[in-house]
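Hi Y.,

Following your request, here is the sequence exactly as I used it, all 492 residues.
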Amino acid sequence: MTEYRPVPPQVDLPAMEHQILDLWRDQGTFAKTLQATKGGPAWTFYEGPPTANGTPGTHHIEARVFKDVFPRFKTMQGFHVDRKAGWDCHGLPVELAVEAELGFNGKPDIEAYGVEAFNAMCRESVSRHVDEFTELTHRMGYWVNLDQAYWTMDPSYVESVWWALKQIFDAGLLVEDYRVAPYCPRCGTTLSDHELAQGYEDVVDPSVYVRFPVTSGPWAGKASLLVWTTTPWTLVSNTAVAVHPDVTYVVATKLGDDPETLIVAEPLVEKVLGDGWQVEATMPGRDLEFVTYQRPFELVDFPDVVGGTHYVVLADYVTTEDGSGLVHQAPAFGEEDMAVCRAYGLPMVNPIRPDGTFEPEGVELVGGVFFKTADATLVADSSKRGADVPGARLRAQLPALLALPHPAAVLRPAELVHPHHPDQGRPAARKRGHQLVPRDDQVGPLRRLAEQQHRLGAVALALLGHAAADLALRARPPALRGVAGRTHRVDG
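Below is the corresponding structure, written out as tokens. Let me know if you'd prefer a different format.
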């Protein structure tokens, strides 16, 4: 018969937790749960491991609660959950921490110091707080196998990743292609979503309307496309102008001593042009398709492609909430731009180097200039030529990227994502391109995600009781025949 002890009127919860932890350790409770379910169906759980170059925090506790509660639950259902711990040894935060220790300010400093020596310091840094993480893991009662933890910097782990990639390559599933991804010119590397969300800062961007003179069709030499942009530096690589096929566009002429004719979306005429304009004609956006125009800057060369370049294309993502309803396209610098221009067979031209500066040779006006610094020069040149119509300066939010010093900006590079397979017959690799990361459409989703995680964490903490261990060790239900193993991963 089980002996029960009376519950004291005053409970010392921390002391009681230590008693239970001692009981689990002395009786080998975790090992017994593994042994009790040894014959059950597998439920594979891959832990998204923490990076141990920093001290553990409350966010690690929340993540580890989730990593513990689900394996315990599946164990109680009779599944065998072989929980293997791990340590994440890669990532930009590790390098940035070591850079701060050494007083470095960018990739050139690392190369001057020596990549091998710098890597050695990074390897050392990721193991500094393993003991603290281990203590936290035991203290919160997280059941995971720390004795056989994997390290992502171990050659065996790295080789396993390359082995898996080779299997995909041998199966002909790798092709040469490009994607648009966050990129930091200061660090000389692309960024993960986690690195991108390290924090944001406010910046002020110029908002300009630029005239693109029409060179074909009934309005050639008479009207200009009015295009809006907050990234003047990308105009150097302008390839096309996108309009919505179902939006009505107008050809409006300014009355008075200084007449001019512009093409804008009908819903934005009053907002953009104001009073004193007369509508000459209207048409759906699809009627503007393939109308050519004079590009804003003749600073870079474009390859010869079938159908040429610098004409109007159709895109459903174009809206009439802001701007003029005509969207400047630079496919090396934006996901939507790339998708639309690819559909038309347009080339990807990028004059910006990995350090965020324009090519020093062959790019007049802004050669060697950091891309954001070039905004002022390009706007001034457009104004001098009468090509732009100044707009308001907009406040935008960009990733602060761990408060990196200037020049530090997050870009969107179009990069080669993997080696091409010889059977695919894809074109040769082009240079990388970059694009400022839009922030406005990310703030809300990120905040909502954080709030959801907070609420879920509170629920999980409430559900995770010390009695879970005892429940797991009770009479296990019969093996669940016919139930396939499931694979899950929780990062943190």
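The chain has 14 helices and 17 strands.

Thanks again,
Q.
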